Amino acid sequence: MESRTKIAHINTVDHPRNAVAQVMSALHGFVRENGFESRIFVGNGSRECSDHRMQGAAGRWRNALTARLKGTDGFLAEKSTYRLLRRLDEFGPDLVHIHNLHGYYINARMLLEHLAATHTPVIVTCHDLWLATGRCAVPAACGLYLTHSCDQCPHADRYPALWRQKATISPHYKDHLLSPLDAHLVVPSEAMAEAVKATTLAHLPVSVIENGVDKSVFSPTPNTGNHSGLQLIAVASRWNAEKNGAALTRLASLMPSDWHLTVVGSDFPKSDRIRVIRHVGSPSELARLYREADVLLSPSFSESFGMTVAEANACGTPAVVNSDAVPSIRPTDNNVLSVNYSDTNLLIDAITRAASHKADPALVSSIADMQKKYLSLYRQILQNPLN
């Protein structure tokens, strides 16, 4: 019997509500349908979804505590990483697809040095810039990482956060670990590609493959009913400082009385003029909220792709995004309009213009589009390895 090509996926989690895990799961299932053997290796999650889980809850919290005190996320968990390497050797992958290595679960040095020594072809999907920095995953407008100056980090609160705001902690750079690898980078947007090419990862080949939206769920409906005034929505899993919820609070205080703003996600403060939904039970419920809105607001200071924008556009809802976002979400015909969220009057004008039309779902990549592009890249790399 002819042996099948083996793909190994590595990520922090395999939770179905985690955006990166959703991408991984979609690729895992698709390549199996196309004759590959695929396995998932994660830091933590459900045993039903992955083939190897590196740690339980206690191990994750222990590693998180260490990382927050010492700034060593990605350079921990030597014993569990050693066990992972043994499992990888037993599986014998022809290609390893790395998603996120941050998240308090792995020793990236051990993994990447092992893959270099075994001459295993590697795809790394850069969902953020963690591999190019000395510590954080989302540097936003901070450019210190470009000159390897993260020992002067002014943003210790950015994920993976430090508890000691003024601590002098040696930065842990990862980019040099990719140099000996037969590695190919994938990014979800052209803006992210430009950001990566400005870093010390620029010597590696880069492909742009947009994250796919499940268009069987996120799709427009012919008649959503009439509603009074203008309906606005903003969505995030958690409204941390980078998501810039303060801009929404300013907007709510100045927007016309017949405008209505709904904010979905945890950690958003209560407001008299904002309807806050802490948690949405299912993707179909979220799609309904997108369809009921006239405009999606994305005030974030940093977005490598902008999944909420893509989901809303797939439902026919246009988006107004923050022009200060790094990397930025690009304006796209009637789907995406960009404006500086620090100027609320400009924001109100942009919302009015965006609400005058519907977004075109055809401009949004589907999961099937994403799967086919990754499969093509897998085959290309397997046929033409760099080493």
Write up this protein:
The protein is an alpha/beta fold. Helix content is 31%, strand content 17%. It is built from 11 helices and 13 strands. It has helices at 19-33, 57-70, 78-91, 108-117, 175-178, 190-197, 245-254, 283-292, 307-314, 344-354, 367-383, and strands at residues 6-13, 37-44, 52-53, 95-98, 122-125, 183-187, 206-208, 230-238, 259-266, 274-277, 295-298, 319-322, 336-339. The strands form 2 sheets. The chain has a 7-stranded parallel β-sheet, sandwiched between helices. It has a 6-stranded parallel β-sheet with strand order 10-9-8-11-12-13, sandwiched between helices. The two termini are 28 Å apart.
Would you summarize the structure shown here?
This protein is of the alpha/beta class. The chain is 31% helix and 17% strand. A seven-stranded parallel sheet has the order 3-2-1-4-5-6-7, sandwiched between helices. Strands 10-9-8-11-12-13 form a six-stranded parallel sheet, sandwiched between helices.
Topology:
Blueprint: E1 6-13, H1 19-33, E2 37-44, E3 52-53, H2 57-70, H3 78-91, E4 95-98, H4 108-117, E5 122-125, H5 175-178, E6 183-187, H6 190-197, E7 206-208, E8 230-238, H7 245-254, E9 259-266, E10 274-277, H8 283-292, E11 295-298, H9 307-314, E12 319-322, E13 336-339, H10 344-354, H11 367-383
Parallel strand pairs: 1-2, 1-4, 2-3, 4-5, 5-6, 6-7, 8-9, 8-11, 9-10, 11-12, 12-13
Give me the count of strands.
13
Order of helices and strands: EHEEHHEHEHEHEEHEEHEHEEHH
pLDDT averaged residue by residue: 91
Sketch the major β-sheet.
7 strands, parallel
What portion of residues belong to β-strands? 15-25%
Termini gap: 28 Å
- Helical content (DSSP H or I, runs of 4+): 25-40%
- Category from helices, strands and their pairing: alpha/beta
**Uncertain runs:** none
Radius of gyration: 21 Å
Number of helices: 11
Order of strands, main sheet, comes to 3-2-1-4-5-6-7
The outline comes out as globular
